[in-house]
Amino acid sequence: MLDAKRALAQRGLIIDGQQFQRILPHIPIEDDLSTCTSYDDLDADDPGDYRQPKRPHWANKVQFVLACIGYSVGLGNVWRFPYLCYKSGGGVFLVPYFLILIVCGVPLLYMELAIGQFTRRGPIGALGQICPLFKGAGLSSVVISFLMSTYHNVIIAYAVYYFFAAFKAYQPWSDCDNSWNSAACWLPRFTGLDNRIRPNTSRTPSEEFFDNKVLQISGGIEEPGALRWELVACLVTAWVMVYFSIWKSIKSSAQVRYLTATLPFLLIVVFLTRSLTLEGADRGLRYFFRPRWELLGDAKVWVNAAAQIFNSVGIAFGSMICFASYNKFHNNILVDTVAVSLINAFSSLLVGIFAFATIGNISLEQNMTVEAVLSDGPGLVFVVYPQALAKMPASQLWAVLFFFMLVCLSLNSQFAIVEVVVTSIQDGFPNWVKRHLLCHEILVLLICVVSFFFGLPNITQGGIYFFQLIDHYAASISIMFLAFFEVIAISWFYGVRRLCNNVKEMTGRVPSIYFRFCWLIASPLLIMAVWVFSLIDYEPPSYRNGLYIYPWWAEAIGWGIASLSLVCIPAFAIYVLIRAEGNTFSQKLRNSIKPHFEACTSCGQEYCTEPMHNIDEELLKEPLQEMNNIVHMNSNYLPPKNPV
């Protein structure tokens, strides 16, 4: 009796022999997980509901777009984009960059936003619901995000160190008269061209400040040395800023992003304008915009372009799925996709112009080539830029603004990286979090503390070598492999047709043939080709433009770091196959790729109520009779024309 009434309440009601279906409305459940008491409302007892756990929403569309832009327009645009452009021969890099953006970047961003918004889960839950066999791909993205969170915050620690150092009346990286400078320190003079020729063994003041003062760098990764306690304090400061920005989930981080995601754009425009007025800026711009077409046949150019697109846009890192899971159901994700992609590409161009105009000025001042000025790793940000800032009028002001911009850009990316880990743990273990950690704030604190301790090896005297190693293997090699399996899971196993139906259900429009072609054919083929070429043309990591070569055991550690994320995909697939229902392998495989939810056979929508013929009529007789009696007792009752 009770089960029948519950079935009627869920599926509809029958009055005088007429069936009225109850359509479940697309009304998002307003459940704020940002306070300790909010877990009392978690509906975690219903694991069959793929829309669980409940979610808060972005207060408005601007907050969501700022979150996506803040992640994509981050430190990678200021640091990695100019360096990869230099490694790829200058302007020719822009050709594969924009081609891969069109074929992979935009379609896959649209796909991730659609999956996140529809399932209302983080990467593990979203992929696990639409294709359980590839749930490990979601876990891999969380592992990569955790690894990135441990060393990405080190960049913020460097920026905080430089920010406070910039307040000194005389910039400490502007001359050779400091205790950390060596006899090789060289400062260009303006008495004549001959005096401006830089000796081969010399080092600029900014190089010596970064290596000898900030890092107190050792001879290699085999010499880890002691912790740099000044950097430890800066790293603590960075994690405190991250914690209090995201401890209330999207409510707190969205408010912070109004500053951190908008102010950097204004500062980039200011620095761009200033850099174009520098003497020699045209030398750097010619290198940036004059392509060497013969390099298009070099696989490294395409691999570098793909790595930049995936790192910048955030494909396969889980951040965009996580952000979209906080959207309202009917949000128009196509507008968000186009806006984020265009702003990201435009900002990369602006930063590229600013970077190469500055580098051109330095190359003229030191009578060097543009290629000789650039350096790998964080050196571009903390060596080349300070060198240019030191000789600007009001250098103190410019330096303070520049490093404040770096802090803002880095924080935006760090928010997204940490929120992926938090959201995934919260989705996967809601009852455990409620029972042991009590509230969201404690979970965020635990993750920040654990990430802080894992980041300590990066701020030893040999930490920069470890930083370069983990960045090479975690952010470049692993991400291509992961992106391929994510696309296969969604486009081929879950199906483009299902995905298009989901998008239509949310937005009212079916994705264009361009998106469908890229999802099904173009993107998987391009990702596979780039990944294969990256393995064929594999180059071991190095530091200082190849002057330091890592020992074999360091490379083994790097591959071990990459394997931490990659092994999740086959391991979880085997686990799911073993646990799947069925007596034969084919039955188990069929059940392991079946989504956890099925669309209505009549309308194709996931939220529509199924026909009532599946309910046992014998169970319904008594409750139906009661309902009909109640209706006939009230002669004024008229059933609604469109009951909901």
UniProtKB/TrEMBL annotation:
<dbReference type="GO" id="GO:0005283">
    <property type="term" value="F:amino acid:sodium symporter activity"/>
</dbReference>
<feature type="binding site">
    <location>
        <position position="344"/>
    </location>
    <ligand>
        <name>Na(+)</name>
    </ligand>
</feature>
<feature type="binding site">
    <location>
        <position position="413"/>
    </location>
    <ligand>
        <name>Na(+)</name>
    </ligand>
</feature>
<dbReference type="GO" id="GO:0046872">
    <property type="term" value="F:metal ion binding"/>
</dbReference>
<keyword id="KW-0915">Sodium</keyword>
<feature type="transmembrane region" description="Helical">
    <location>
        <begin position="473"/>
        <end position="496"/>
    </location>
</feature>
<feature type="binding site">
    <location>
        <position position="70"/>
    </location>
    <ligand>
        <name>Na(+)</name>
    </ligand>
</feature>
<feature type="binding site">
    <location>
        <position position="73"/>
    </location>
    <ligand>
        <name>Na(+)</name>
    </ligand>
</feature>
<feature type="transmembrane region" description="Helical">
    <location>
        <begin position="397"/>
        <end position="422"/>
    </location>
</feature>
<feature type="transmembrane region" description="Helical">
    <location>
        <begin position="556"/>
        <end position="578"/>
    </location>
</feature>
<feature type="transmembrane region" description="Helical">
    <location>
        <begin position="442"/>
        <end position="467"/>
    </location>
</feature>
<dbReference type="GO" id="GO:0089718">
    <property type="term" value="P:amino acid import across plasma membrane"/>
</dbReference>
<feature type="binding site">
    <location>
        <position position="409"/>
    </location>
    <ligand>
        <name>Na(+)</name>
    </ligand>
</feature>
<feature type="transmembrane region" description="Helical">
    <location>
        <begin position="338"/>
        <end position="359"/>
    </location>
</feature>
<feature type="transmembrane region" description="Helical">
    <location>
        <begin position="517"/>
        <end position="536"/>
    </location>
</feature>
<feature type="transmembrane region" description="Helical">
    <location>
        <begin position="62"/>
        <end position="79"/>
    </location>
</feature>
<comment type="similarity">
    <text>Belongs to the sodium:neurotransmitter symporter (SNF) (TC 2.A.22) family.</text>
</comment>
<keyword id="KW-0769">Symport</keyword>
<feature type="transmembrane region" description="Helical">
    <location>
        <begin position="301"/>
        <end position="326"/>
    </location>
</feature>
<keyword id="KW-0813">Transport</keyword>
<protein>
    <recommendedName>
        <fullName>Transporter</fullName>
    </recommendedName>
</protein>
<dbReference type="InterPro" id="IPR000175">
    <property type="entry name" value="Na/ntran_symport"/>
</dbReference>
<feature type="disulfide bond">
    <location>
        <begin position="176"/>
        <end position="185"/>
    </location>
</feature>
<keyword id="KW-1015">Disulfide bond</keyword>
<feature type="binding site">
    <location>
        <position position="77"/>
    </location>
    <ligand>
        <name>Na(+)</name>
    </ligand>
</feature>
<keyword id="KW-0812">Transmembrane</keyword>
<feature type="binding site">
    <location>
        <position position="312"/>
    </location>
    <ligand>
        <name>Na(+)</name>
    </ligand>
</feature>
<feature type="transmembrane region" description="Helical">
    <location>
        <begin position="258"/>
        <end position="281"/>
    </location>
</feature>
<dbReference type="GO" id="GO:0005886">
    <property type="term" value="C:plasma membrane"/>
</dbReference>
<feature type="transmembrane region" description="Helical">
    <location>
        <begin position="91"/>
        <end position="111"/>
    </location>
</feature>
<keyword id="KW-0472">Membrane</keyword>
<dbReference type="InterPro" id="IPR037272">
    <property type="entry name" value="SNS_sf"/>
</dbReference>
<dbReference type="Pfam" id="PF00209">
    <property type="entry name" value="SNF"/>
</dbReference>
<feature type="transmembrane region" description="Helical">
    <location>
        <begin position="226"/>
        <end position="246"/>
    </location>
</feature>
<keyword id="KW-0479">Metal-binding</keyword>
<keyword id="KW-1133">Transmembrane helix</keyword>
<feature type="transmembrane region" description="Helical">
    <location>
        <begin position="142"/>
        <end position="164"/>
    </location>
</feature>
